[in-house]
Amino acid sequence: MIAPLLTSFSIGALNFPNRVVMAPMTRRRAAYGKLPTALMAQYYAQRASAGLIISESIEVDPLSGLQGPTRPGLFNEKQRDAWLLVTRAVHEAGGRIFAQLSHMGRAAHASQLEPGGRVIAPSAIAASGQIYTAKGPVPYETPAELDTTDIATLVQQYALAAALAQEAEFDGVELHGANGYLIDQFLRDASNQRIDHYGGSAANRARFLLEIFDAVSQVWPRSQIGVRVSPTNTFQGMGDSDPVAHFTAIAQLLSARAPAYLHVVEPPVQPEGVPYVAGAIRANFTGPLILAGKFGLATGNAAIETGRADLVAFGESFLANPDLPQRFLSGAALNEPDKATFYTSGEAGYTDYPFAQG
Ligand SMILES: Cc1cc2nc3c(=O)[nH]c(=O)nc-3n(C[C@H](O)[C@H](O)[C@H](O)COP(=O)(O)O)c2cc1C
């Protein structure tokens, strides 16, 4: 019997030859100006056998929400044109790629922003931990609380990036609502204590995401807009008082909009005491569901077989194995990821992982 991960799947007009998704992964190899490069095109094209590639997080705001010069952007035409290198290389290699649109929000540092940029968030609550700057690691700053005019501008920035992504010939976009970045900062109540209609209830906290979704759906069919969330991730001081109830509500609101998919970062087995929110999301979201987080061949197949997911995204294992679906098919051993080169420059640990022989 063919492994569930290696069976085909379709979303709208897009046909995926397998259900092995390449998870979005920041690799910090863009050129000055936040421009994608030929090396990035090679890296993604090597991984074109994925059912779907989700790009590394791509910055949408030219002033705020940035982190370092080597994370790519999609807020001007030069960046759009440079992304064509990547999308065309992936398509020529037979693949499909979505652009992950993102904003760091409070997880940025003033020293890394453009003049006029600010560290911003739904509420003036600093992320916990430290951020790496040119002067070494420093504590996160307390962000400025966004006002509703700022929020409207941000929504338009996502819409512009989505339009540029379409011109750059991506197959769709993913709204990065996970891992403690701006949309996630709105979604969860440890970082969102607003008293206006962007805070309070789960529906209010989801308003920013839904406004972005609606603005982006002026540009893209809904079946080409995915959403990523991480309901129980505690990275950077994130938290939520009731993730099951809150993400049940968020899943229902998203379900009504029929996005391409909902992408949930949650491992197959949660640490003790942490609820399995993906189950509640599955029960309350009618569209395709992607799960990500520490999955392997066996747990990925099981997730699909038992109906817990439609597709499974692989991060570190796809980073280290450009031919991951083929290795899953043949049973070939996997290359080990080299963490030391996750965020360095050049080919080492990027485009030089070997393909399996034969
Ligand atoms: C080097 C690296 C960079 C990452 N960058 C992003 C990112 O840009 N956006 C995002 O949503 N997740 C990012 N992640 C998280 C992955 O998408 C994925 O959820 C995580 O690695 C867990 O999956 P895994 O155990 O299969 O690696 C990153 C992970 C790694 C290892």
Describe the fold and architecture.
- The protein has 358 residues and is an alpha/beta fold.
- It has one domain (4-341): TIM Barrel (Alpha-Beta Barrel), CATH 3.20.20.70.
- 30% of the residues lie in helices and 16% in strands.
- The chain contains eleven helices and 14 strands.
- The strands form four sheets. It has an eight-stranded parallel beta barrel with strand order 3-4-5-10-11-12-13-14, surrounded by four helices.
- Helix 1 (38-46) runs parallel beside helix 2, helix 3 runs parallel beside helix 6 (207-216) and helix 7 packs parallel to helix 8.
- It is globular and about 60 Å long.
- The two termini are 22 Å apart.
- Bound molecules: flavin mononucleotide.
- The site of flavin mononucleotide (FMN) has 21 residues, from strand 4 and helix 10.
- Flavin mononucleotide is lined by residues 23-26, 56-57, 100, 176, 178-179, 228, 265, 292-295, 314-317, 342.
